[in-house]
Structure formats: C-alpha cells, structure tokens
Design goal:
Length: 855
C-alpha cells in the first residue's frame, strides 16, 4: 500500500464517528475488540484462514477506534463532579489546581483597558471577566470535605470599581497561575443541554475540550478565592504559561490600546477582549480564519524565522532544528488548538524529512496530522475549527492547479510560449494575483458548505477580500514577532514594530468594517443538510478528478441535477400539510412563540428575553433555520418591555420580514420610535393592532385581536396594554396573552364571549394574579403553556392549573413546547422529551453560536 497512513486514518475517523452515533457500552465494544483480535491472531497462525485477515483488520481498527472514543468520552470515575452536582446553581466550596490559567494583565495595562470600557446596556453584565480551568480535588459537604475529580471551568466576574479603586484584588489575581492550588466559593452547576431545536450545544462543546469540562463555576469576588499551597507539577507547562502571559502583556503594553486585542488574537489566539463587532465583521467578510490561529499563522511564523536564518548563512541542519523548536513552542503558546496543531505537525514532518533525507509527501503529512490530533483528543473530529482547517488545507493543496488550469487555460498556454525577455514588468504581479485568486477560491469551495451549515453565512467575494487583507495580516504578524522578540530582549526597541503593527491593525479593522457594510458582501442562508453536504463534496471530487475516473463532464452535471431534484422533491414531501403548529421557545424570562399556518404563512409572536445574550441571534434564528424558514410573514410585538422585543434587530438582519405589528401604546413610546426607525430603514410594513381586528392572509385559520381596546388610557400599565391574540382552526382555539395582568384580564372578561380556548398561554409568565382563576374558568383550556423561569412562575398559578385539570407545559423545564392542530385533534411535545426518545439527536454541532467558541 502506497500511503497506509491514509487508510488507517480514514478507518480511525469512521470508528470515532460510529462511536459518536451509537450508544454501545464500553464493555461490549472492548469484548468485540478482543474477539476480533483473537480471530486475527488465529488467521495468522493458520495458513488456510489468512484469506479472512484482510477484511477482518479494517473491522478491528474501526472497533478499536470506537472503544477508544468511548473510553475517552464516556468513562467517568465514581467520584467525578458530574455525579455530585446538578444543572441547578448551588453555592459550593471547592478546592483544586489550576491547569489552564487566565491571562493576567499587569496593573497599568489592566487599568488602561478598564477605562476604555463603555457602560453596559444591561445591569447584570460585569465590567471584566476572566476564565480558567480548575482540576477539582475536594468539595465541602455537610459531613466534611469529600474527594472529587473532573475539570471545572471557573468564570471570575469583577467590577471596574473593585479592580481600580481597590488594590487588594491584584495580588490575588497574580496568583492565578498554572499549578496553583485554590479554594473557591461560588455557584457551581452542570451545563445544560440545549432547550430549543438548533440551539448551540454548549454542554457537548465543553465535553469535547481537552481536558473534558463537565462543570461550571461562577465566582463574583476575589474575597471568595483563597490561595493555598502551590502544587509541584510540570515545569514545562509552568514556563509556557508564564511566557504566554508575559507575551500578551508585552503586546498590551506597547501597542495602541484599541489595537492590542486583535493583535493579541492574531499572534497568540487570545480573544478575551476582542469585541463582538470586530468578530462579526470578520465573520461577514469570510476571513474569520485569520483571527482563529491556524496554518496561515504557522506558515508566516516559519517563513519569518527561516528568512533571517538563511540571510545569516546558518546551515540547514541547525536552521531546521531552530525552526522545529519555534514551531513546537508556538503550538503550545497558542493552546494546541486543532488548526494550529494540524499545521504544526505537517510543518514538523516537512522539516524532519530534510533531516532524514526523505521525500516529502503532503498527502501523508495531512493524514498523519489528522491521526495524531484525533489520538490526542478524538472529540476534535467534531470541532468546527478542525473540520474547516482540514478541508481548507485540502482545498489549497489539491484545488488551485485544477482551477487555474480550467479558468486561466489560455493565459497559462501563452506563458509557456513566452521567453523571459518577452514577459512584461507586470508579469509577476499578474501571476501573484492569479494564484491568489485560485488559492482563495479553492479554500472557499472546500469550506463553503460547512460555513453555511454552521454559521448560515455565504460570502461570495471572499477571494477578493483575502487578496486585500492578506498583506495587512502579514505585516501585523511579522511586526508582532519582532515586537515579541524585542520585548523579551530589549523592550525599549519594541516601540517601532509596535507602532507599525498598531497602525496596520487600524487600517485592517477599518477595511474589514467597510467591506462588511457593502451591499451583497454576505448573505444569511438556511444552510444545507448533511446529505446535501455529502453530495456537494462528492460532486467536487468527481469534477476535479473526472479524467482519472474516466467520467465525462456531462455525466457529472446530469448526476448533480438528478441529486438536486431528488433533494428538492424530498423537501416538498416533508412539508406539513393541513396542520397548524404553535412553538413556544425556552428563552428564560421572555417570550418567543412561533405559529406556522397550514397555508405556509407564519407569525412570530414576541421575540425577546432578559437573558444576557442575544435571543434573536442565538435561539430564534437557529430555530427558524432548522425549520427551513427564510421569510417571516408577520412579527407581532405584544408590548414595549425589552423581554418581548430585544431580539428583533438580529432577526431584521438575518431574515426577510414582511410586516411588524404592535399596539398603539408601543409605537407612540420612545422604545417604539426606535423600533419604527429600524423598520423604516428596511422598508418593513407596520400597523397598529387593537381589539376587534382580524388579520387576513392566514386562511383557513382565523386570527383575531382581543386586546387592547382601540382607545386606552396612557395610565394603564404597559403589561396590561399587551396584544392578546386568538387563533381558530378546525374547531380548536389558541389564546396568546403575553403579559396582561389584572386590568387586562378584567378587560377581556368584560367581553367574555368567544374567549373559550383549547390552548392557553398563561399571562405574565405564570406569575400570581388575583383574578387568574376566574380567567381560566372562563377560557376553559385543555392545555396551557408557560414561558418563564424558575423564579417567576408562581406555585399558586400551578396549583390553580392542576386543580382545574389542565395539562401544563413549562418551556423552562421541558424545553421548547410544540402544539400541533390537525384533523386528528391537538397533540403536543417538548424538546427534552424528543431528545430522550430520539437517538438521532447526536448530530454534529449545528446552529449559530458565539465565534469565541471557534477554536
């Protein structure tokens, strides 16, 4: 076999994926491995059975891979912290050792950073946050300290006043180094599984880290950190951790304060202070890979080190040794994330081939890197950064020559006929631009399906963008390397390189911001299915290698068209007919209810939450994309409180929205004027709703407005001005009440005719209302649902519902709740119930999520 590592790696990947999909116990898998090993041994011993050895070996490798994945991910010791805590936050006192320390800025740099921070829009967001990983040792219980194991991600939240006005936190922060033993007091809990379709699975993301993180802990003051004795551990990690911290401080100390976060991210992968706006702009222009440390950074580092070594005449053996040390050091400094690890392993193999006088094979190098990364952490197979890095590398290696030979066939033919004297002054510039375009296109073609699948973004002009920004990144990285080198050797000499890196960064951020604001520079899309991704890559392989496979272009095109028609036809068949669905998403204290009508139209009733993240971006948009929704026909905002509308701006950017309606009080308020301004910029239709209105276009369903009255007093509480929606279909009725309280309920009861409903949204998040029981008896629901949080829903409300024998579903407990009305009646389901029944939930991480998770 010419390249055995390719075959072994592919079998290893298949085994990991099968282990991920199946729920076979480790003991069964290990038993199968043992039996297969015995069988292979017998095949070797008895000549007449050797014919079975060849098919048995791949099965054995796959079984070993499955067992390895299960042992690394599923096996937990009896005293693991996951068996001690629950998803409910509880105050705990835990001791442990820091194994992944935070970046601790020195006092002057930290003060400078904090003074730049703008006041937060919401009161519960901290001024400064730092995170580190703790290897748990003991937890305090009622019976004393108990030994535990497992890694904990600790989030330390500090206020600006605590850091600047008082000096005592800084000595404690400086103790948060690798190997330090701490005693922490704070809220500890297990991360929750996603509660809505399409939502980012943060729990599985943490479990896929190395080490696997199964617990979170929140500490809100340095007084809750008690520094204990240092643990004597690996001095190499201690040195690398201290060096990483020193280098980050060097960047912050010498560069401009507004440029330091991006420069630190590009050089060392530190994205703690990188603003969400900068990340979004890089996402929208398709160049997020430049700030996620990858092979590009490794390549520039190697080139920057290699060039002076060659200029000073250092011999090849010594140069190779120096470069290998630099590569290994850089990989450790940037956290050994999969993209940089892949590039580092390839670079190490490449330079080692010179030392042993062997020919370099890039295909073997790629698959060797994949194999060692998955040996180190098999969960990296599902790491988005790893997947994109591998595909982009393969695209860059195998694609440019094919694209150049197809698109620039004439130009290449003319160049072959030209002599050196016939080539003009712009020859090398044109050649550089041509090859740059081909490389960018190859990388884009290799990654566009996964980018659309994970981020729901398509950036059509990425080839041009890459050419424009590449020189700026090159300057920043080269100047950054010089800055870090001089910062260690002679700090005063680092000012020039820091000045150049800072100004280049300012130009870069301005350019990226301008490119992101151009029309059609990016598109939000629903995203392909896994089957569509498989067919896409199959088509690309057939198209590029049709000569080797003796396939004509026409056959490949016909195959592609047939596949597309089959997928489209299958999508049509899956479309639900003659049914109305109502889905209440779990957004904590807030409201998001999506109604899908039988005629294909839809209404989004409220879109907001008091959660500390953008509910429109991280919950509603992924849910709609998962439902293959591209267009929202109508958004109804019940009233002016933020927990019912603050997700709207993100939806305006990501979806085509036809209309946004609300009641008169909202549109006449200051909040309403801000909303109207956003809607006017996008030419979105608006209208005022009041009692008695009928909404047309959703037939055969009937949609009516029951509240508020056409003319209401401005002294009425905002909650009691909420739009109340009534939907009738096939003899069943749904009543959506938003946040009406006592006055709103009295207003509806005064016109009690026609309010009887099958499904009722409990008003005001299930809080206690003195006339709620009277309202429920008038509505006489069979089912009810509550969108709230544990702290708001009243036990009195739940007792009333139970006394009236009403089936009640709570989104904050059961996940997204869905009711379906069709000719068979009313059925209901919850997201957590579906997950427990459906093994196919173990899919790749899908959805939109904070880019800081991209490692």
């Amino acid at each position: 076999m010419k390249r055995p590592i390719v075959f072994i790696t592919l079998l290893f990947v298949c085994g990991i994926y099968l282990g991920y999909l199946t729920k076979i116990s480790v003991s069964i898998t290990l038993t199968v491995v043992f039996l297969l090993w015995i069988f292979c041994l017998l095949c070797l011993c008895f000549h007449k059975f050797t014919v079975f050895l060849l098919p048995c070996l791949p099965i054995l490798l796959i079984a070993i891979s499955m067992a390895y994945y299960d042992c690394r991910t599923e096996s937990l010791p009896v005293n693991h912290i996951e068996h001690v805590l629950t998803t409910r936050k509880s105050l705990q006192r835990i001791t442990g050792i820091i194994i992944n320390p935070p970046i601790i800025l020195d006092e002057d740099t930290l003060t400078k950073r904090l003074l730049q921070f703008q006041p937060k829009h919401t009161f519960y967001k901290p001024d400064y946050k730092m995170s580190f990983t703790l290897q748990a040792e003991k937890i305090e219980t009622l019976s004393g300290w108990k030994s535990i194991s497992g890694a904990i991600k600790v989030n330390l939240y500090l206020s600006k006043d605590q850091l600047i006005q008082t000096g005592h936190p800084l000595p404690v922060l400086n103790k948060l180094v690798y190997g330090q033993r701490l005693e922490l007091f704070g809220y500890a809990f297990l991360p929750k599984s996603p509660a809505n379709p399409g939502e980012f699975d943060y729990k599985r993301y943490l479990q896929g880290q190395l080490p696997s993180i199964r617990c979170l802990m929140t500490v809100v003051h340095t007084n809750n950190i008690k520094v204990k004795d240092s643990y004597h551990t690996n001095w190499i990690y201690s040195f690398l951790s201290a060096l990483n911290n020193y280098l980050n401080n060097t960047i912050y100390a010498h560069t401009f304060s507004n440029s330091a976060p991006l420069i630190s991210s590009i050089l060392l992968g530190n994205r703690v202070d990188l603003s969400g706006e900068v990340i979004d702009n890089f996402m929208k222009t398709g160049i997020i890979h430049f700030i996620a440390i990858s092979g590009f950074n490794v390549g520039i580092v190697v080139f920057t080190v290699l060039l002076p070594l060659r200029l000073f005449g250092i011999n090849q053996t010594l140069s190779t040794g120096i470069i290998l040390i630099i590569i290994i050091l850089y990989a450790f400094l940037t956290g050994l994330n999969p993209p940089v690890l892949r590039a580092s392993i390839m670079a190490i193999i490449f330079f080692c081939s010179f030392l042993v006088r062997r020919q370099w094979d890039i295909t073997s190098g790629i698959f060797t890197a994949i194999f060692f990364i998955l040996i180190r952490n098999p969960s990296d197979l599902f790491n988005i950064g790893f997947q994109l890095s591998v595909l982009a590398t393969m695209g860059i290696v195998y694609g440019p020559s094919k694209i150049e030979g197809t698109v620039f066939k004439t130009a290449l033919f003319i160049e072959k006929l030209q002599g050196k004297t016939e080539r003009g002054r712009l020859f090398f510039l044109k050649k550089y631009l041509r090859k740059s375009i081909c490389i960018s296109l190859a990388a884009w073609l290799a990654t566009v399906p996964l980018t659309a699948y994970y981020f729901h973004l398509v950036t059509p002009f990425i080839a041009i963008t890459n050419i424009l920004v590449f020189p700026l990144f090159w300057v920043i990285i080269v100047c950054g390397i010089v800055l870090l080198t001089l910062g260690i050797i002679c700090p005063p000499l680092a000012a020039t390189s820091a000045w150049l890196a800072s100004h280049t960064d300012i130009v870069l951020e301005s350019l990226v911001s301008s490119l992101a604001s151009l029309p059609c520079s990016y598109f939000y899309v629903v995203g392909p299915s896994q089957m569509e991704i498989i067919l896409y890559y199959t088509g690309i392989v057939l198209l590029f290698y049709h000569n080797y496979l003796s396939l004509g272009i026409a056959r490949i095109v016909i195959w592609g068209l047939l596949s597309a028609h089959i997928l489209i036809f299958a999508g049509i068949l899956k479309f639900p007919k003659n049914s109305l669905t109502i889905t209440c998403l779990d957004v904590g204290h807030g409201g998001v209810t999506f109604i899908q009508f039988p005629n294909g139209k839809n209404i989004l009733y409220d879109v907001g939450s008091w959660q500390n993240h953008d509910v429109g971006r991280y919950i509603v948009a992924p849910f709609l994309w998962r439902q293959k929704i591209k267009e929202i026909d109508l958004i109804i905002l019940s009233h002016g409180h933020e927990d019912h509308w603050n997700g709207l701006p993100s939806l305006l950017e990501r979806f085509s929205i036809k209309s946004v309606y609300s009641q008169r009080h909202l549109f006449s308020s200051n909040v309403g004027q801000r909303i109207l301004s956003m809607l006017d910029k996008r030419n979105i239709c608006t209208d005022v709703l009041s009692s008695g209105d009928d909404l047309k276009g959703f037939e055969p369903a009937v949609v009516k407005i029951l509240h508020p009255p056409p003319f209401h007093s401005r002294t009425t509480p905002i909650n009691d001005n909420s739009c109340v929606l009534k939907i009738e279909y096939l003899g069943h009725t749904v009543l959506l009440c938003a946040d009406i309280q006592e006055q709103g309920i009295e207003s509806i009861l005064s016109r009690s005719e026609g309010i009887k409903s099958t499904i009722l949204q409990i008003p005001h998040h299930g809080s206690s209302l003195h006339n709620l029981e009277l309202f429920i008896k008038a509505v006489q629901p069979v089912y009810s649902f509550i969108n709230s949080s544990n702290t708001i829903t009243s036990h009195t409300t739940l007792n009333i519902l139970q006394k009236n024998h009403i089936k009640t579903l709570q989104a904050h407990r059961e996940g997204a709740v869905t009711f379906t009305i069709d000719k068979n009646g009313v059925t209901y389901s919850s997201f957590h119930e579906k997950k427990s029944q459906d093994y196919s939930y173990r899919y790749f991480y899908t959805c939109t999520f904070p880019v800081n998770y991209l490692q």
